[in-house]
Design goal:
This protein is mainly α. The chain has 7 helices and no strands. Helix 6 packs antiparallel against helix 7.
Length: 218
């Protein structure tokens, strides 16, 4: 009799633990699905008024079961980046610069864990857009960031040739860089021409007269 009671108690406890476990998993799946939908909406709007909320243990379990863990991390990294670029301190660009480089590091790491070409292409499009945003600011890193942006968009096109955004961004970046190089070349040519004009204006003698041949006279 005592043994039967012990078995029933153990079975009851096991069922109770199982029920709590199933409830935990169900809650995590629902939370992961809801958070993923919110993150996707933030991604599409391109705006974020605050960094992404760190997922709890139940949500992480739900993301793993739904197969969206890496994609959710990618979306959170993007939201943190957008929130960081919106953090403006007058007279400085430090918060935006820090947000950019933190996002670049996170996205590069996350890209390796994405399982589909489409998701990896999306990650590279975001990387390219972040580097392209840095190109808009003059500085020593402009050439490096331009090359990184073009490389990221190129990877996106190779990963997913059907990604129209990647193709358009690559074309725009290549065209922008070509226009920038041509404008720089014109500016250098104009500066050289202006320098020659100033030099002629400053020389009161004007151009030198060719020397006469010996015995030719004037």
């Amino acid at each position: 009799m005592r043994r039967r009671v012990s078995v029933r108690v153990a079975a009851g406890l096991a069922l109770l633990v199982l029920a709590f476990g199933l409830a935990f998993v169900a809650h995590g799946v629902a939370e992961a699905r809801s958070a993923f939908g919110h993150l996707q909406a933030q991604w599409q709007r391109g705006l974020a008024d605050a960094p992404a909320t760190a997922p709890g243990r139940a949500q992480r379990v739900g993301e793993a079961l739904l197969g969206i863990r890496a994609r959710s991390d990618l979306l959170r990294a993007y939201q943190d980046y957008r929130a960081g670029t919106a953090d403006v301190i007058p007279g400085t660009v430090y918060p935006q610069t820090r947000a950019r480089w933190e996002a670049i590091g996170r996205l590069r790491n996350l890209t390796r864990s994405l399982s589909t070409n489409e998701d990896r292409a999306s990650a590279n499009v975001v990387l390219g857009a972040i580097f392209a945003a840095g190109v808009a600011t003059p500085g020593e890193q402009r050439a490096v960031e331009t090359n990184e942006a073009i490389a990221a968009f190129t990877r996106a096109v190779l990963e997913d040739p059907a990604n129209a955004t990647a193709k358009l961004d690559l074309e725009v970046e290549l065209r922008t860089e070509l226009d920038r190089e041509q404008a720089s070349a014109r500016a250098r040519a104009g500066s050289s021409s202006a320098s020659r004009r100033r030099q002629r204006q400053q020389d009161p003698r004007g151009p030198a007269i060719p020397a006469q041949a010996e015995g030719a006279g004037y």
